[in-house]
Amino acid sequence: DAGVIQSPRHEVTEMGQEVTLRCKPISGHNSLFWYRQTMMRGLELLIYFNNNVPIDDSGMPEDRFSAKMPNASFSTLKIQPSEPRDSAVYFCASSTSGTGSYEQYFGPGTRLTVT
Amino acid sequence: DQQVKQNSPSLSVQEGRISILNCDYTNSMFDYFLWYKKYPAEGPTFLISISSIKDKNEDGRFTVFLNKSAKHLSLHIVPSQPGDSAVYFCAARTNAGKSTFGDGTTLTVKP
Hints:
Distance between the termini of chain B: 38 Å
Helix content of chain A: under 10%
Helix content of chain B: under 10%
Largest sheet of chain B: 6 strands, mixed
Strand content of chain A: over 45%
Mean pLDDT of chain B: 94
Shape of chain B: globular
Oligomer: heterodimer
Largest sheet of chain A: 7 strands, mixed
Strand content of chain B: over 45%
Low-confidence stretches of chain B: none
Mean pLDDT of chain A: 93
Distance between the termini of chain A: 36 Å
Number of helices of chain A: 0
Structural class of chain B: mainly beta
Number of helices of chain B: 0
Shape of chain A: globular
């Protein structure tokens, strides 16, 4: 299995531009998570989906952030407009769900720099 | 309120010795605890987990201990190897599927 795939791996953009991050989860996984990692705030959960439905978006920082999961094999995280404080590494992860530990499998991350 | 805390930002041990990484939590509703390892420029990878109804789980060189009364868990690596040098994240999961991560501990194993 190819694992969780994220694109792009690196994104540099100017303040005010729209940024779209993409994620393909592992086939057969029905939960998908978006995280943001910064030095100040560590690894924080932004939103997660179960069976393509957003379950908890309480971590989304503000209305500039939106996420979609149109089908079981694709998700996007969009920032519009982007700001310098959005600079971070964004991880997508997937897992199965239900009882059990159901560990998450992370993608390699997208390093976003907003100038 | 940080529900999962790793109070030691870094730990350095000699190759062959034991590494002990600690984690504290506040939410009694967590039903699983997991440890992830992260190398630079990569995503975290799952290492080992423990159910809240157990107090120990072992997998090769890695053992996780859970003390529910103290709301504390620890990861023991023995013997430590230079390849174990990485950032280790403690995570706690609720039965709703949401995981909360600690800030991580950077482990350095010196040859």
